Amino acid sequence: MNGTTTTTARYGLRELVDTDRHPLHEPGSAAYRAAVDAARAQLRSDGCAVVKDLIRPEALSILSAEIVARKPTTHFSTQTMNPYFHTEYNPDYPDHHPVNTFLERSSGFIPGDSWESGCATDVIFRAPELTRFLAACLEIPELHCYADPLAGLTANILDPGQQFTWHFDTNDFAVTVLVDEADEGGLFEYVPNIRNAEDEGFDHIQHVLDGGRNGVVTLDLRPGDLQIFRGRHSLHRVSRVATDSVPRHAAIFAYTEKAGVIGRVVRTRQLFGRVLPEHEAAERDRVRSDTLLD
């Protein structure tokens, strides 16, 4: 299992994760099996599972402080984009169509190269116990920490007035931990399995982009909760944070089924404002896994 580090960690996993309630270190225990079964049932049902209070309350302040300390490295951007992260009008589609419906995305990401090995957030991300647990929940043989130097371990920042509008992910699943919640707004919402490999689901997507609520689920997330989400087929967003609210901060842990995966150039530049030679090299060798719009 990938995800170990050779640098001495400043924190032990049990200092950060509530292993009494969630015994990640005891995969043979009844509590572990129950947690895996519960997550599998949620993921099979609608592509989203929440592990409540995974992070110890006293550890949340450490994670929050690490995000705040790295916040000056955040790449903030504001774009009008469609759900596929495209920003240009496409004359091959009607005007009133998801491909040509553009909404504001205003948010920021702390890049992967801002986190030193051994900090608390990095310890959780790279813990073999967590990757083993997540693989079991996702019903796949193993997981590897995303090798992308910018998008492996990140934090999503939504300052007052910002939102991450409706979109799809390019990866099959995402793992996040809510660290700091907004006073108002900043809610994670999604429409489970609105599209699939055979059907883009344009009509339902347009309904949601127009403000319709049919099929929309609002998730009850609290700081310390871990979320496993299949965002490739489920439209999702984080609603606008109120202008008089505190910021919303979430740690994002990216994993892949295969080792050595690097992100796409266009999406990397949109989210982090730059790409590295590793991204350009990977783009030349990339093979798409499906024919969906991104």
Short characterization:
The protein is built from eight helices and 13 strands.
How would you describe this structure to a colleague?
- With 294 residues, the chain is an alpha+beta fold.
- It has a single domain, classed as q2cbj1_9rhob like domain (Jelly Rolls), CATH 2.60.120.620.
- The protein is 27% helix and 20% strand.
- It contains 8 helices and 13 strands.
- The protein has a 7-stranded antiparallel β-sheet with strand order 1-10-7-12-5-3-2.
- Helix 2 crosses helix 5 (128-138).
- The radius of gyration is 18 Å and the shape is globular.
Count of spatially separate domains: 1
- The CATH class is Mainly Beta
- The rounded Rg comes to 18 Å
Give the helix proportion (percent range): 25-40%
**Using DSSP, what is the number of strands?**
13
Q: State the strand order across the main sheet.
A: 1-10-7-12-5-3-2
CATH superfamily: q2cbj1_9rhob like domain
Average pLDDT reading = 94
State the low-pLDDT regions, or none.
1-7
Query: What structural class do the secondary elements suggest?
Result: alpha+beta
Specify the overall morphology.
Answer: globular
Listing every helix as H and every strand as E from the N terminus to the C terminus, the arrangement reads HHEHEEHHEEEEEHEEEEEHH
Q: What fraction strand?
A: 15-25%
CATH architecture: Sandwich
CATH topology: Jelly Rolls
> What is the number of helices?
8
